[in-house]
């Protein structure tokens, strides 16, 4: 029998909110054994992060409160310690030393005014009682272990000087520094590109073996779990609905929610007209104080077969698309940003964000654009909209060269060309009701005669994106991330655009929610005859959405072609790396 | 950095030109002030010519700038050399290009050099400003941190209310209240004077330093900065304490005190520095009311007197000094920003 490290029994956590107490975790129990990696999977709000924070007693209190239960940690000599009964002083000895944690947001989880090296030293000096020189030596060797380039320089660098992946490596070094028994990783790769995610996951499993720790790995993505975990817990609405080994869960899922999570990842070997979602497997009925789940009797295979598109259909669609005139023609587009100016204000050095890019987009087509952060895809989309000025080159939209237009001449065209941004949390004004947010663009462009007609139109749009008329007067904070992205889509549609740029519009969302939003976008494309440029760092998502795919690297186009061809037969090493990074 | 200095220099010239234009255009005749009512026209005219007041405005402005500038153009003869105490660089006909200390002219009233008058007053004011801003920073940051840690408790509420009262209280009211309470009613107990400077003359005419005369003006002067610094520190600390990196620090097992002072406070200080440097600059340039109430003979008192008597050179000198201080303190606070927050680059 393996040694038990952590034993959680009947843990209940409540959060106080405006509408009274909300049960975030409803009496869960599980064990963590020495040397294993236990994955906890679930969507936002399922209680998985709250559970992980409660082990370290890091839940913000108030509003959070651990109502009942026990969290027992077994020390190396098998002494049980109930973490819920410890004083703050005693907890501080365990935090970082026996149990360490890696957080989701490497961008904000490091202190911006402290050198990275000192932030790691700090834990070593505190728990091991080392002096600064000893701690520095250990930190440098840790930086080497987490494969940071040039450890000495990283030691003296401030967090803002590093990339997201490098910051997460610092966080891992920090968490591993005191060789903890338990490592809790709360969505450590969600904020990172797929390629970076892959290297971080490899690093974590290597280091775990080296220091013989157990890992509690929290994520919303079953694909990631398959890469790293031995056992899985599936959490849904504060309860554990299913648990087992990774092989069991993937081969023979029992709970409909697990089936939904497994099925909703974009497929790689075939095309689909829509993705399966959790709702294909179960129905949730909310009564006064009870949530009832009714299972539908479909297997994953049934649902996938229902939505599959044959190769012939795909070919027919492509043939039809390419017969048309291009809607957008981009010729030798360059966008440079000045980084250094000399004494006379003349630019002496540039960042070439978009460097000599040419391509066409056909009417009704979806052109996928894929690449890592910093490859120039967002600058390209902003340039197409003329939100960033071009350095040289031409953009023809229906034979009008956008680069020659003044701001005033561009304005009527803004109705036709629209954009959906990445972050649904910050792209809605928190002080504006969603109805007003959607009606505003119509007023600006004087669409429709009066506000009464406009309001009817807004309600129609809300219904189109799967929201309800009663949501008109509510504020953004009342909605979840997926709902907000629907609202943003409704706002984009309010002007009846013909051409929509989706800039990483699902990367901030859970996989299960991502599937719903992608389905909505595909449905709207057929219904409203839209043309998309779909941008993402995740090649699997781009492949699902697009007819043709364009791979960008360092401001240049690496390759462009039919999406399936690029996936099945990538020409450049860069594309091959992007494909290899997709969790299988 | 260099560009900032250039901008600062430009501001200095513009301030000089604007203020001197306004004053020269005012309908007052300084020569009359110098001689009083019973002066004959010939003397007045001679004095006017000597001061250059009979010249058109632009000539007067040019002459003043020439006097102020460290590199300037003067007549090349001994009397002139003695007056300006310059170092000749290169001769140009009857004139020469020279290097000198800025010459701020002489007071119409006392005939003393303005540089000397300001030089006497500035150390007193600087001492007062320094003491009160240090007092205000320490107390304000301490109270702000305390209030943020005990958010919504009675400590927090009391601090906030007192801060708002302290900020709303005009400085002269505070000064009079302090003088009355601690200097008069409790005077026997505290041993403090109602009025007086730090540098006083004793009964034998020797200059002595009376440190206790600094206490009440410094307290009265520091009251509003304390209030502002407290409120600002509280607000930014509350913001910083909810950030992710504070949670990271907790997860490392760091104790609360270290988290507050090492991790949170340094992140919270940036807006506080802006407030402190702004206040420090305005305190340095003289606290007119406070200095009057306590009859503390600093820059504020000198300036007010000069204004009342239309002593133009003194007023101009004082304004110039004020502008200089603001520019220097601004540059200093930029440097401090970069020191506290590495994301900010100097220049």
Structural write-up:
The complex is a heterodimer of chains A (584) and B (347). Chain A has 21 helices and 24 strands. In chain A, helix 7 links the parallel strand 7 and strand 8. Chain A is an alpha/beta fold and 584 residues long. In chain A, helix 3 runs parallel beside helix 6 and helix 15 crosses helix 16. In chain A, strands 6-7-8-3-9-10 form a six-stranded mixed beta sheet, sandwiched between helices. In chain A, strands 20-21-22-17-23-24 form a six-stranded mixed beta sheet, with helices on both faces. Chain B has a three-stranded antiparallel beta sheet with strand order 1-3-2. In chain B, strands 4-5 form a two-stranded antiparallel ribbon. At the A-B interface, helix 2 and helix 3 of A face helix 11 and helix 12 of B.
Jot down its keywords.
heterodimer, A: about 575 residues, 6-stranded mixed beta sheet, 24 strands, about 35% helix, B: about 350 residues, mainly alpha, two-stranded antiparallel ribbon, 5 strands
Beta-strand segment tally of chain A? 24
Beta-strand segment tally of chain B: 5
Would you tell me the overall average pLDDT of chain A? 86
> What is the gyration radius of chain B calculated from CA atoms?
25 Å
Morphology of chain A: globular
Which spans of chain A have pLDDT < 50 for at least 5 consecutive residues? none
The fraction of residues assigned to DSSP E strands of chain B is 5-15%
């Amino acid at each position: 029998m393996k040694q038990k490290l952590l034993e959680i029994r009947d843990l209940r956590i409540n959060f106080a909110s405006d509408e009274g107490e909300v049960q975030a975790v409803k009496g869960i129990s599980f064990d963590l054994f020495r040397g294993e990696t236990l994955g906890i999977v679930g969507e936002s709000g399922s209680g998985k992060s709250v559970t992980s924070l409660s082990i370290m007693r890091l839940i913000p209190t108030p509003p959070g409160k651990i109502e009942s239960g026990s969290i027992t940690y077994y020390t190396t000599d098998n002494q049980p310690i109930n973490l819920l009964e410890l004083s703050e002083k005693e907890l501080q000895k365990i935090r970082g030393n026996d149990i360490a944690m890696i957080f989701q947001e490497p961008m904000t989880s490091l202190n911006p005014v402290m050198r990275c090296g000192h932030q790691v030293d700090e834990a070593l000096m505190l728990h091991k009682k080392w002096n600064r020189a000893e701690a520095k030596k250990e930190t440098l060797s840790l930086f080497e272990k987490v494969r940071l380039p040039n450890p000495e320089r990283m030691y003296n660098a401030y967090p803002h000087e590093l990339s997201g992946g490098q910051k997460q490596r610092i966080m891992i070094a920090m968490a591993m520094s005191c060789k903890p028994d338990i490592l809790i990783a709360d969505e450590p790769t969600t904020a990172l590109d797929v390629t970076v995610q892959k290297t971080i996951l490899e690093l974590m499993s290597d280091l775990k073996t080296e220091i013989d720790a157990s890992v509690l790995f929290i994520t919303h993505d079953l694909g990631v779990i398959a890469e790293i975990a031995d056992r899985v817990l599936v959490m849904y609405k504060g309860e554990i609905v299913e648990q087992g080994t990774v092989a069991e869960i993937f081969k023979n899922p029992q709970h409909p929610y697990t089936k939904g999570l497994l099925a909703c990842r974009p497929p790689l070997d075939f095309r689909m007209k829509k993705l399966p979602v959790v709702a294909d497997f179960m129905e949730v009925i909310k009564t006064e104080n009870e949530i009832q789940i009714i299972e539908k009797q479909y297997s994953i295979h049934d649902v996938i077969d229902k939505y599959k598109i044959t190769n012939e259909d795909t070919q027919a669609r492509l043939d039809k698309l390419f017969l048309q005139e291009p809607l957008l023609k981009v010729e030798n587009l360059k966008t440079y940003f000045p980084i250094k100016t000399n004494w006379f204000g003349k630019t002496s050095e540039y960042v070439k964000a978009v460097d000599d890019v040419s391509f066409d987009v056909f009417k009704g087509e979806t052109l996928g654009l894929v690449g890592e952060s910093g490859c120039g895809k967002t600058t390209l989309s902003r340039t197409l909209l003329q939100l960033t000025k071009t350095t040289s080159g031409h953009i023809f939209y229906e034979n009008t060269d956008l680069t020659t237009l003044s701001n005033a001449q561009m304005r009527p065209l803004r109705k036709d060309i629209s954009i959906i941004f990445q972050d649904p949390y910050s792209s809605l004004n928190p002080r504006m009701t969603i109805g007003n947010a959607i009606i505003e663009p119509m007023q600006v462009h004087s669409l429709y005669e009066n506000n009464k007609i406009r309001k009817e139109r807004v309600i129609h749009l809300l219904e189109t994106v799967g929201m309800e008329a009663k949501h008109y007067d509510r504020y953004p904070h009342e909605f979840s991330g997926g709902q907000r992205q629907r609202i943003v889509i409704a706002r984009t549609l309010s002007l009846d655009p013909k051409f929509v740029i989706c800039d990483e519009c699902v990367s901030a969302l859970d996989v299960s929610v991502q599937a719903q939003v992608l389905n909505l976008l595909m449905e709207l494309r057929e219904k409203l005859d839209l043309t998309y440029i779909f941008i993402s760092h995740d090649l699997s998502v781009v492949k699902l959405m697009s007819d043709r795919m364009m791979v960008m690297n360092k401001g240049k186009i690496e390759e462009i072609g039919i999406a399936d061809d690029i996936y099945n037969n990538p020409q450049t090493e860069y594309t091959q790396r992007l494909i290899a990074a997709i969790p299988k | 950095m260099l560009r900032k200095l250039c901008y600062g220099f430009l501001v200095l010239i513009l301030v000089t030109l604007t203020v001197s234009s306004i004053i020269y255009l005012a309908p007052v005749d300084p020569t009359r002030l110098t001689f009083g009512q019973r002066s004959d026209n010939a003397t007045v005219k001679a004095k006017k010519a000597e001061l250059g007041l009979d010249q058109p405005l632009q000539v007067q402005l040019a002459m003043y700038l020439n006097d102020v500038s460290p590199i300037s153009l003067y007549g090349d003869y001994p009397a002139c050399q003695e007056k300006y105490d310059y170092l000749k660089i290169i001769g140009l006909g009857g004139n020469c290009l020279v290097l000198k200390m800025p010459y701020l002219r002489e007071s119409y009233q006392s005939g003393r050099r303005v540089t000397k008058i300001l030089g006497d007053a500035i150390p007193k004011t600087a001492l007062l400003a320094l003491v009160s801003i240090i007092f205000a920073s320490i107390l304000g940051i301490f109270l702000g941190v305390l209030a943020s840690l005990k958010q919504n408790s009675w400590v927090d509420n009391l601090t906030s209310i007192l801060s708002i009262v302290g900020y709303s209280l005009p400085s002269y009211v505070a000064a009079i209240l302090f003088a009355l309470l601690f200097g008069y009613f409790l005077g026997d107990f505290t041993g403090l004077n109602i009025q007086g400077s730090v540098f006083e003359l004793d009964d034998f005419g020797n200059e002595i330093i009376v440190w206790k005369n600094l206490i009440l003006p410094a307290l009265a002067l520091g009251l509003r900065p304390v209030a502002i610094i407290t409120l600002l520190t509280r607000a930014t600390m509350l913001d910083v304490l909810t950030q992710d990196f504070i949670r990271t620090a907790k997860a490392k097992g760091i104790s609360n005190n270290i988290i507050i002072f090492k991790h949170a406070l340094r992140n919270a200080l940036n807006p506080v520095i802006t407030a402190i440097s702004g206040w420090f600059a305005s305190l340095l340039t003289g606290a007119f009311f406070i200095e009057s109430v306590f009859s503390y003979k600093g820059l504020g008192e000198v300036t007010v007197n000069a204004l009342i008597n239309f002593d133009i050179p003194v007023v101009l000198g004082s304004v110039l000094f004020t502008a200089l201080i603001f520019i220097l303190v601004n540059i200093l606070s930029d440097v401090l920003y970069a020191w506290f927050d590495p994301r900010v680059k100097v220049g």
